Amino acid sequence: MFLADVVGTVVTPVQIPDLAGRAQLLVRPILPSGKPAGRVRVAIDSVGAGVGDRVVVLDEGGAGRQVLGLPKGAVKCVIVGVVDSVDAPGGSYDHSQGTGLVEERR
Amino acid sequence: MHLGRVIGRVVATRRYEGLEGVTLQWVEPLGEDGRPEGAPLVATTAVSVGPGDFVTWVDGREAAMTCPRAFVPVDAAVVGFVSQAARLGREFEPPPLPEVR
Asked: Among A67, A85, B29, B59, which is least packed, fewest CB within 10 Å?
């Protein structure tokens, strides 16, 4: 799993059946400083996350299929938690403060 | 999954058993503003797409699960056609492919 900030949304009207009816969000993996740690991913939301949330993202197929109840699904990247807080030297985070991304938009 | 843009079709007549009828496309990974980011890769397609299309693709073992036969040597597959993607409320799309004469 990895920590990421939800930065956007993706709509795919044509897709494999496994993805039908599931929200897909654009998530940006982050470093403790909050800076991007690599390319954005498209993750399936299982917890009701939204743009501006910091989330825990699963990136393993077996567990992803279990979470979504798709034994043969071609799914891998799933948001499995919305982060309340992170305590880390140089990388603390509090949900009430937010990631600052929504403010950036305004 | 990742964002991507189809940049070409790949034809390979001689191929590993089990891959018959599987279409291969050349896909360029995209960053969060729709800019190409990283090395292009070859992916099978589970949806009907072609060069220039904005797509989502999955990597790893899951990619092979989109194929008619699940135990095939495939590690990337296009799984969705993107009609709309937004970053912080602003829509974006990949740049158009260069003109080919």
From this structure: A85
Q: Could you give the CA distance from residue A83 to residue A81 in angstroms, rounded to a whole number?
A: 6
Pull the structure tokens for residue B63: 């990619």
Which pTM value belongs to this model?
0.92
B69, closest residue in chain A (CA to CA): A72
Report ipTM for this prediction.
Answer: 0.89
**pLDDT digits 0-9 by tens, B58-81:** 999 999 999 999 899 999 999 999
CATH code of A39's domain: 2.40.50.220
Cβ contacts of B58 on chain A, cutoff 8 Å: 74-77
Please, is A28 exposed, middle or buried when counting C-beta atoms within 10 Å of its C-beta (0-12, 13-18, 19+)?
A: buried
Q: Does domain B2-87 have CATH number 2.160.10.10?
A: no
Report the domain count for chain A: 1
Q: Which tokens hold the place of B26?
A: 């050349």
pLDDT tens sequence across A28-47: 999 988 889 999 999 999 99
Interface residue B93 vs chain A (CB under 8 A): no
Residue among A39, A38, A81 at smallest CA distance from B57: A39
Domain that holds residue A65: 2-92+101-105
Asked if B44 contacts B79 with a C-beta cutoff of 8 angstroms, the reply is: no
Helices and strands per DSSP (H, E), number in chain A: 2, 8
